[in-house]
Design goal:
The protein is built from three helices and 23 strands. With 210 residues, it is an alpha/beta fold. It folds into two domains: 88 residues, Rossmann fold, CATH 3.40.50; 110 residues, Hexapeptide repeat proteins (UDP N-Acetylglucosamine Acyltransferase, domain 1, 3 Solenoid). The longest helix has 12 residues. The protein is globular and about 50 Å long. The model has no long low-confidence stretch (mean pLDDT 96). GO terms for molecular function: acyltransferase activity. It comes from Desulfobaculum bizertense DSM 18034.
């Protein structure tokens, strides 16, 4: 990764991402802030304006990573992804050197794999997703675009995750189940059966949903 990386979005996820980027020796140009954020340095990295500066900065930078977090909805990350692609940015794929990733894993553009993640063989991960700290993704899992697999969550073998879904911190998904697109799984839950699209789950799913 020769070009300095433009980060899009300040806040907590940005700070965690900076640690991964520094560990991987990736050069960071600076940070684009959201419209409700003050233009300030974050961990020593300069602000480079707001979202509406993205088109103008394309003449100087060509490589970007979305560093806005995703809780429940992927709306903001999807909007920024579309804006960056419209302006012909390349989206970096970032993998922490502190993670354990099978060589048979396929990871899409704009996706970040954080520290201490374990991903087993024949896993496919789509674009613009977050595989967050300490999560485990077992063999054969399929994760869509714009997903967030949150801190310490576990996907057992052959789980499929639809586009835009959110798996809360510490949740466990049983082998072979499907989580529908834009579904939201709360923190610390056991999910033993399929979840339909756009469904928000706040308690354990120990029997099929009706």
């Amino acid at each position: 990764m020769n070009s300095p990386l433009l980060l899009v979005g300040g806040g907590g996820h940005c700070i965690a991402t900076l640690d991964v980027l520094e560990s991987a020796g990736i050069s960071i140009a600076g940070i684009i802030h959201g419209p409700d954020q003050p233009l300030e340095y974050i961990c020593g990295y300069p602000p480079l304006g707001y979202d509406d500066n993205i088109p103008a900065l394309r003449g100087k930078y060509n490589l970007a990573l979305i560093t806005v977090g995703q809780i429940k909805t992927p709306t903001i990350r999807k909007r920024l992804y579309t804006l960056l692609k419209k302006n012909n940015y390349d989206l970096a794929t970032v993998i922490s050197p502190c993670s354990t990733i099978s060589q048979r894993t396929k990871v899409g553009e704009g996706t970040i794999i954080m520290h201490n993640v374990c991903i087993n063989r024949n896993v496919t991960i789509g674009d613009n997703s977050i595989i967050n700290t300490g999560s485990i993704v077992e063999h054969g899992c399929q994760i869509g675009n714009h997903c967030h697999i949150s801190i310490g969550s576990v996907l057992c073998g052959n789980v499929s995750i639809g586009d835009g879904a959110f798996i809360g911190a510490g949740s466990v998904c049983r082998e072979g189940i499907h989580i529908g697109e834009n579904a939201v799984i709360g923190c610390g839950l056991r999910i033993l059966f399929d979840i339909p699209p756009h469904k928000t789950i706040k308690s354990n799913v120990l029997s099929p949903l009706t």
